Amino acid sequence: MIIVIRKDAGPEKLAKLESWLKDRGVTPRVSVGEQRTIVGCIGDVSRIDEGMLSAMSDVVASVKRIQEPYKAVNRQFHSMDTIVEVPVKGGGPLKFGGGNFQVIAGPCSVEIEEQVVEIAKAVKAAGATLLRGGAFKPRTSPYAFQGLREEGLRLLSIAKEETGLPIVSEIMDPRELEFFDDVDILQIGARNMQNYELLKEVGAHSTKPVLLKRAFSGTIKELLMSAEYILASGNPNVILCERGIRTYETATRNTIDLTVVPLLHRKSHLPIVVDPSHATGVASLVPPLSMAATVIGADGLIVEVHNDPPHARCDGAQSLTPENFGEMMKGIRNVRPFACR
Ligand code: PEP
Ligand code: MN
């Protein structure tokens, strides 16, 4: 339920309305916009009498029941784009959303110091603004490389120190949060999109930006409900990520669903980035899909880059070399002015 507040209603009247809603077990979320102030009602609104609210005409301009089960992430509650900021040492914050565009690049997994530092320097020189690298790796096989864990995060911190690039790394378990102090964006991977304990943990115990990836079989509604968990637990800094979904097609690792970019912009105020690496699984397909994602209006990209793809411990086939990444970035800069929105 959304309540549009009268322009001439002062803060006292608004506060009275908020306490009236709270008395009925509903959490009001006030959003003050340039044009109007609206109150989103979170919780069980079935017992709220719309007629009663409309009768409070000194404060209520109109009342609208909405169908979607997600509220905090809903564009209807928050008409302005959310801009997620990532602090940068010695500079202004990096911004996702609201017309800002960032490129996150780096290896699938952190392997050794020389590898991650070399890649970090190369992607920075090519124009990437954040460094990615997995330390806690969700692998299909228990016999596959599982990541360097805390040591991997330590190596990422060295690369951050050397380049100044903020770092993005995947967290898989709520108990790992203590190791992520120096990580700037917490990634929640496709396999954990519905790990509700993890979503609640990064919502309640962190205000760091969270990059939330869509599950292989996650619907748009399920993705938004997962984001809702994080916002409802107290962390508004969520960046959504399309990384391909599983379909009947086997020629590519997943099927990229670029429709979600404009659709999610309509449904939600949160920024959305695209991961063409996991979406395709094929390095040569990454540049054209990155261009397409940019033009369709994505707020950023997350791309896997490795200095020696044939010997990568994870996802070599989809990793660009630094040279290929540099070429791709030239193309991205060329098409950016034509991005939709
Ligand atoms: C990754 O980014 O390395 C990763 C495992 O991604 P996803 O969760 O999208 O498979
Ligand atoms: Mn990967």
Question: How would you describe this protein?
Answer:
- It contains ten helices and 14 strands.
- The strands form three sheets. The protein has an eight-stranded parallel barrel with strand order 7-8-9-10-11-12-13-14, surrounded by six helices. A four-stranded antiparallel beta sheet has the order 2-3-1-4.
- By secondary structure, it is an alpha/beta fold.
- The chain is 31% helix and 19% strand.
- Helix 3 crosses helix 4 and helix 9 packs parallel to helix 10.
- The model has no long low-confidence stretch (mean pLDDT 96).
- The site of manganese (II) ion has 5 residues, from loops.
Helix content percent band: 25-40%
Structural class by sheet pairing and helices: alpha/beta
Question: Considering the protein shown, what is the CATH homologous superfamily of the largest domain?
Answer: Aldolase class I
Distinct ligands, ions and cofactors found in the model: phosphoenolpyruvate, manganese (II) ion
> Measured on Cα atoms, how large is the radius of gyration?
21 Å
CATH level 1 class label of the largest domain:
Alpha Beta
Flag low-confidence runs: none
At the fold tier of CATH, the topology name of the largest domain is TIM Barrel
Number of helices: 10
Distance between the termini: 28 Å
